[in-house]
């Protein structure tokens, strides 16, 4: 889920008794109503949704009928449409997405076809290109990531090979 710049909450993808989903709905808290909008091109769950500075929502990765996904899509709330954008370099799910001070998006960790991931990738919102960037020393998924007031990203906790961790790492772009 992501809260868009117009105050509506975007819910997309997921899984139910019918299987993996690509449907998208918007919730308007002022009317307490859900409306259906455009669907993603790919059915998946465990994706990450991040709101860009231009108001569009970037969805990356996830898990679907074909397994771990490297597909990234942009949702344009003014048109209600999805478009595919550059694919992430390493397919992953249960990862984090954080907008950086330069407007790019950092995705970190997660779980991929090779298991727990240490790597991170940066999405350039102007060129729509993904670039591999720093690795964490501890592979993790189901973790949290937040931008600190200094512009540094704090990645903390999560599941690791041996169970769970309370360690944290800092990322500077």
UniProtKB/TrEMBL annotation:
<keyword id="KW-0677">Repeat</keyword>
<dbReference type="InterPro" id="IPR015915">
    <property type="entry name" value="Kelch-typ_b-propeller"/>
</dbReference>
<dbReference type="InterPro" id="IPR037293">
    <property type="entry name" value="Gal_Oxidase_central_sf"/>
</dbReference>
<dbReference type="InterPro" id="IPR006652">
    <property type="entry name" value="Kelch_1"/>
</dbReference>
<dbReference type="Pfam" id="PF01344">
    <property type="entry name" value="Kelch_1"/>
</dbReference>
<keyword id="KW-0880">Kelch repeat</keyword>
<protein>
    <submittedName>
        <fullName>Uncharacterized protein</fullName>
    </submittedName>
</protein>
